[in-house]
Design brief:
The structure is a homodimer.
Chain A (H helix, E strand, L loop, with lengths): L15 H21 L6 H10 L6 H12 L6 H24 L3 E2 L2 E2 L1 H28 L2 H24 L7 H26 L4 H28 L2 H4 L5 H5 L4 H9 L2 H12 L7 H11 L2 H19 L7 H15 L3
Helix pairs in contact in A: 1-3, 1-4, 1-15, 2-5, 3-4, 3-7, 3-15, 4-5, 4-6, 4-7, 6-7, 7-8, 8-14, 8-15, 11-14, 14-15
InterPro entries (chains A, B): Isoprenoid_synthase_dom_sf, Polyprenyl_synt, Polyprenyl_synt_CS
Catalytic activity (chains A, B): 5 isopentenyl diphosphate + (2E,6E)-farnesyl diphosphate = all-trans-octaprenyl diphosphate + 5 diphosphate
Family (chains A, B): Belongs to the FPP/GGPP synthase family.
Chain lengths: 336, 336
């Protein structure tokens, strides 16, 4: 709590200012995550910790801690809610890997490769159950409402994505609806429960939700650009995973719309029919660059990042506000 | 409610008296189930309704309605909680089919065979999210506590079962721990929220929970006996599914313990190594009969059924109490 960043010497935009502010709380969240993924059934902590200890940034729980801090919350409910948010996220990752048949996650073998799809599905369910238990313990019905609604919306977004898979007709709006649901909803909910816990007025609750939601959209846009633009080591997953899975992300949507008849035929063959040959990924990336599809995806992310930042303008200056603003830069700039 | 069953002409033991008492409420639950599995993402209601409309008995939500009735509850929160309970159950079935790689469910193709594993995982997650949303809408923190705890315990039980799969060393106690968690916990929770909603004293809450928990154990024991003793048409699934999946249920535990060295070798080959030949299922059933393993599994079910019935003795006579008692007979007698 006592950490003050002098405004004159503001740290390099990034996640460090936030890490400094939430550090002590984050230790408690990590403790909670550890104790709540424990079980007499040894496979549960094994699978859970494989993923949990694999060095995710824990961005989502930090949003809960930071928005609670921004709103002057004095209690301790934010710790359990932050842990719940991370559990919801981890459960989604476990289930996603089964759905996408992914081999890698955060630079390690995906849990399903080590323990099987069954364990990934069930341990995900366990973490979801534990997440709800913790929320109930905090006892705030408005927070429960926000987080349980997010859980339903996330799953809806995942199914939407599944339905749109391999469909090159997907529009930018369709794509946005998917990422709004599957990614941004949890960022929004994680950021909304802070002011809710603190009993802040409606406008501040909406502001924090808006911050999280737009940050989440920006985050996913960059993620989708990285899938074609990063390196394996940087990504912690294989480059071109989305390509191989026939996932229609914005770089593809833009390249398809802007493409020649021949290029559209290329996207149909590779993504719809799944007929992918050796040099196709390189060809896909080259085509994307030709149409500035990756650059414009990042540009779109900047737009949502700006909206996130503006949502917070309602709040007076504080280290919390600056740190949350820097997180936007961190999310947008990690791509390039 | 106005329905009175004359005690002299008590209906044939079965589920009919309960159906009569909860009929009107059950219509509202079914309406809720239908409206809450709706989504703009058309795959969601398709997958959900495939399973929901496939003629399950809806025993679990009926327990919520009936224990609410038994305890004189006058509100309408039990409708949404009952629908939540059914959604939790449906989500578990969707995920189970993926875990077990089942082809059939309730006499129809399993959802995963029609829409794929992905859809089964994600629609299950959606239903779980909707279940929590409905619980939150009811707004009872004690009920939320009971049901969210059950969600975590159910998943824990499923993982426990996965860990014990193919292990012929599984003891009767190990087996009981699994079915207590994966099946009985939801029966218990479904029965506990009735008196909780009605604001009844602790002893009555515990009594209803005890009723549901023991009924659930009896129910699962019979289910596991049926997997070796029923016919495909009667079961709505393939006879011998558990056998082919290497699931260690009580009929196997008893047959293994009581068996000769040669018979134990048979169980190790078929269940641990999964080397199953054409006549092995028939041989397994014959060995079970030799050791009275199926009969004794039913006998064990009778024991837990009696405990369920006794748990309700705390309550004065009422049509609700008789109907709940008849459900025990229904569950135990459906086997043979």
């Amino acid at each position: 709590m006592g950490v003050v960043i002098p405004l004159e010497e503001k740290a390099e935009p990034g996640i460090e200012p936030l890490l400094g502010l939430v550090g002590a709380d984050m230790d408690r969240v990590n403790q909670t995550i550890l104790s709540r993924s424990a079980s007499d059934v040894s496979m549960i902590p094994e699978v859970a910790n494989h993923l949990i200890s694999s060095g995710g940034k824990r961005l989502r729980p930090m949003l809960t801690l930071a928005t609670a801090g921004l709103c002057g919350y004095q209690g301790s409910g934010h710790i359990k809610l932050a842990a719940s948010v991370e559990f919801m996220h981890t459960a989604t990752l476990l289930h996603d890997d089964v759905v996408d048949e992914s081999d890698m996650r955060r630079g390690k073998l995906a849990a399903r490769m080590l323990w099987g799809n069954e364990a990934s599905v069930l341990v995900g369910d366990f973490l979801l159950g534990q997440a709800f238990k913790m929320m109930v313990e905090v006892g705030s019905l408005p927070c429960l409402d926000v987080l349980s609604s997010a859980a339903a919306v996330i799953a809806e977004g995942e199914v939407m994505q599944l339905s749109a898979a391999k469909d090159t007709q997907t529009s930018e709006d369709d794509y946005l609806a998917v990422i709004r649901a599957k990614t941004a909803a949890l960022f929004g909910a994680a950021s909304e429960v802070g002011p809710l816990l603190a009993g802040r007025p409606k406008a501040e609750i909406a502001a924090c939700r808006g911050y999280g939601l737009n940050l989440g959209i920006a985050f996913q846009l960059i993620d989708d650009a990285l899938d074609y633009g990063g390196t394996s080591a940087k990504l912690g997953k294989n480059v071109g995973d989305d390509f191989r899975e026939g996932k229609i992300t914005l770089p593809v949507v833009l390249s398809f719309r802007r493409g020649t008849t021949e290029q559209r035929e290329f996207w149909r063959r590779t993504l719809e029919k799944g007929e992918i040959e050796d040099a196709d990924l390189e060809a896909a990336i080259a085509t994307m660059h030709k149409h500035r599809a990756l650059e414009d995806t990042v540009e779109r992310a900047r737009h949502y990042g700006a909206m996130a930042r503006d949502a917070l303008e309602l709040f007076p200056s504080s280290p919390w506000k600056f740190a949350l603003s820097d997180v936007v830069d961190f999310c947008v700039n990690r791509a390039f």
